[in-house]
Amino acid sequence: MEFKAPNTLAEQIANYLAQQIMTGHIQPRERIHEARVATTLAVSRASVKEALYILERWHLVDITPRKGASASQLDAQHATELYDVYMHLLLMLADRLIDHWEGPDRITLLRKISKVTQCLNGNTSVLAVVEASFEVMDSCCEVVGNPYLTEALTNFKPAVSRAYYLSSERYQQDLERTEAFFRNLTKAVLERDKAAMAEQITRFADHQKRLIVEALSPDSCPQSPSPASA
């Protein structure tokens, strides 16, 4: 997953560890040793500690007093809880977008949505589609201008990307539904139809949640990345 260009060393470390967690090289509940990471990356333990707090904010790491940090759990139940909250944040964003967007915003939003469509129709990875979708979300956040909502959605990006990564095979088979969702959602927003907007987001989010839960169910084939100690 790609993030905005980091401004601090701690953010660079957080990006590195986030990639390890999202791709499964650091497994759920696996301990992340500050000293080991500091040695591997040739950085200070203070920078690693700061990075772990960033990862905690991104819902990728749990920090327990006197026990340290470990990768957060991600099973069917946790994925359901994650996606339920994320869906409600998206509903809030879309509701406010309908209230706030003006003529000049239309071009920017349609350009971002067009990029998603190009990804869906091209030979690109699921994560490329997810990243393009996040760009649409970011543009919507700029139009709405609510810093608290923007922060909440931004902090959910890595955890949502992690869930998509683990269910990418199932998601890849369902890209037509994703294209239809963006087409219908765009129509609802441009027509300022809040009922249609809420229906599109709720139905699509419930479907995506089912895909992710199926992928994380115990009877699914688990991902087997090559181990890498942080």
Automatic annotation (TrEMBL):
Protein biosynthesis in keyword set: no
Pfam families, alphabetized: FCD (PF07729), GntR (PF00392)
Annotated keywords: DNA-binding, Transcription, Transcription regulation
GO molecular function: DNA binding; DNA-binding transcription factor activity
Record domain HTH gntR-type: where: 7-74
The keyword Glycoprotein is assigned to this record: no
Name of the protein: Transcriptional regulator, GntR family
Taxonomic lineage of the native organism: Bacteria, Pseudomonadati, Pseudomonadota, Gammaproteobacteria, Pseudomonadales
